[in-house]
Amino acid sequence: MTESLASRLSQRHLLGTETLSAADALRILDTAEVFFDVSRRPVRKVPTLRGKTIVNVFFEASTRTRTSFEIAGKRLSADVVNFTSSGSSVSKGETLLDTVHNLEAMRPDVLVVRHSASGAPHYLSSRVRCGIVNAGDGTHEHPTQALLDAFTIRRAKGRIEGLTVTICGDVTHSRVARSNAWLLTALGARVRFAGPRTLMPSDTSSWPVEVFDRVEPALEGADVVMVLRIQRERLSGALLPSFREYSRTFGINERRLGLAAKDAIVMHPGPINRGVELDGAVADGPRSAVLDQVEAGVAVRMAVLYLLCAEPGQAAVS
Ligand code: NCD
Predict the structure, then answer these.
(1) How far is the CA of 175 from the centre of ligand 1 (A)?
(2) Which of 17, 58, 59, 65 maximizes ligand 1 atoms within 8 Å of its Cβ, making it the mutation to test the pocket?
(3) Could you read off the pLDDT of 12-21 as tens digits, one per residue?
(4) Is 186 strand, coil or helix?
(5) How far apart are CA 264 and CA 287, in angstroms?
(6) Same domain, 225 and 125
(7) Which H or E run contains 194?
(8) What separation in Å is there between the alpha carbon of 47 and the centre of ligand 1?
(9) Residue of the CA atom closest to atom 12 of ligand 1
(10) Quick check: CB of 192 below 6 Å from ligand 1?
(11) Contact 182, 241 (CB under 8 A)
């Protein structure tokens, strides 16, 4: 089984960007360019992963990530199965490991895992034979989101190196912020974090970022403004006075966007709390790359699945 999983990446799983080499990241982005074109053809399907099985194992809600992994697998001709914890035996008390061992007994090639516990995909990766792709673990990492963000930035700006990327909002609870900080700095960008102190991790000293507790100076000259969702479901206690107050002090609107570079793009991983972290007019405006990110998500996930589970010698597109 291991042989058929021979990876064109230097690793068998995609667990995070902190441990992803720049060379592997670039291989994924370059491969995604090929698949991006496939998705724009009239017939959006290639036989690359015929006979492979991918299971999406989602223990947390998802719209974009789950759908785009499913579409990605199907465009590669893999068989794709979706497992969601609601309606499964998880409600009868089955453990995560038992659930995954049972799914693995059906001999999938890759399990795409989303879980509310930080570290769940890492824990599983040392206990299964198939490949594991982290589709978001708690507040820890969301590597394919960062890769699709990098892909979107590279297409919009022609490069990543030397750009200033401001990531603003609820950094503490954001796996998107963490994965982007590691990936974008590895690819040569300067990353800034901006957010209220209550939503900023207490120790950011080991992160390759510059931290701001006001959004205006963080926006100055930024080439990319990446807005994070206020994670209502993960907010505990009185971390925020109110959403209205947050929007007044940190929300990204036309006026604040005026501080960024003239050709700055605005990104958001979705789902957007319109009028809280991002004004609707900006989200729908000419500088918004939000739907480009979603389109990129399919191509990047096709690249990840191809690189992790194609047979040796199998071309991306024949
Ligand atoms: C993100 C997630 O789930 O981490 N969404 C996504 O995958 N597109 C961001 C979020 O939920 O805020």
Answers:
(1) 8
(2) 65
(3) 999 999 999 9
(4) helix
(5) 7
(6) no
(7) strand 190-194
(8) 30
(9) 229
(10) no
(11) no
Q: What is the mean pLDDT of residues 96-101?
A: 95
The boundaries of the domain holding residue 103 are 22-142+294-309
Question: Does the Cβ of 56 fall within 6 Å of ligand 1?
Answer: no
Domain annotation covers residue 4: no
pLDDT at site 238: 66
Residue 20 tokens read as: 């992803």
Q: Residue 200 corresponds to which amino acid?
A: M
Cα of 231 vs centre of ligand 1, distance in Å, is 9
**Interatomic CA distance for residues 291 and 268, integer angstroms:** 9
- Looking at residue 232, what is its pLDDT? 81
Has residue 7 been placed in a domain? no
Q: Is the peptide bond before 271 cis (omega within 30 degrees of 0)?
A: yes
The DSSP result for 92-136, as a single string, is GT--HHHHHHHHHTT--SEEEEEESSTTHHHHHHTT-SSEEEEEE
Lowest mean pLDDT among 10-19, 150-159, 234-243, 244-253: 234-243
Any atom of ligand 1 within 6 Å of the Cβ of 287: no
